[in-house]
Amino acid sequence: MRKMATVFLSGVLALGLAACGGTKEQAATKNERASEYPEKPITMVAPSGAGGGWDKTARSITKVLAETKLVDQTMTVENKPGGGGTVFLAEYATQDKKNSYKLFVNSPPILINHDKKEGNSPYGYGDTTPLAQLTTDYGAIVVKADSPYKDLKSALEAIKANPAKVTVAGGSAPGSMDHLVAILPAYKYGIDPKSVKYVSYDGGGEAMAALLGGNADLIATDASSVGEYLKAGKIRVLAISAKERLSGDLKDVPTFKEQGADADFTIWRGVFGPKEMTADTKQYWEEKLKALSEHEAWKKELQANGWESEYKNAADFKKFLGEQDKVVKELLSALGMEK
């Protein structure tokens, strides 16, 4: 009996050890599998046409991550224009919610498009995983170099006198970011925002082409995207939406407030992943994007594009988005555009 008991106990111990070994082996395999990410090329989506702020941001991020070898896998940029980002987000939130090999850049439109009444998107930042905020930019009101409008006040007076005669364009849909940047100073100047003749294009590059081609009298766009046109003498920047004047090429451009329109608007930009991104993959991108924000190569890219650095990690970025969402809702409500 004693011998049988010994054999039985030995068997139990063997099974227990085998089970422990199996658990450790499974855990090791799982950790190894998680550590292998990324195993294939990664796509960074700019939900707009080429030439705008999202496009430039996506290309700068992928360029620096590759050059610094922070990410070993190939990274490509894909432009997905349509509806100021709503077309892409609808597809992403439903078809790519587990696809950690596709990330995207965005800014206030991810909030605005979800909160506005007209052309409302059922999807918002809650249908994604916010990974990091990287930059801050501002809006700019721009005209052709030979425009009769020499400052913001003269343009606003023309709109006030006859709104139908002044075409304002932007690279996003009505009620979206460029539209808000365009009508904010008008609203603060005492003009009915609904009377402003606004024409939308898919991306800042197309809006700029419309301006230079004579199809718009002025455009609202990202301040960081106008440098090359300004240096080439093709445009005049009437005003910026910052609280204070900027440095660099736009140092002489007055703010909205300086010209009688008591308003300002910040354009943050950040990186988002799919809603059902795994914890390990989220941590991977948090580490990579933080390292990117601190790298000298990124700081040079910021300077070259006229962007200001403002890094927030995933937790802080998500909290910030919640706060910004309240601001956007208040703004849209004041303009009669909240859903």
From TrEMBL:
Coiled coil: none annotated. InterPro entries: BUG, Bug_dom1. Residues 1-19 form the signal peptide. It holds the Pfam family TctC. It comes from the Bacteria. Keywords: Signal. Belongs to the UPF0065 (bug) family. This is Bug family tripartite tricarboxylate transporter substrate binding protein. It comes from Ectobacillus funiculus. The lineage of its organism: Bacteria, Bacillati, Bacillota, Bacilli, Bacillales.
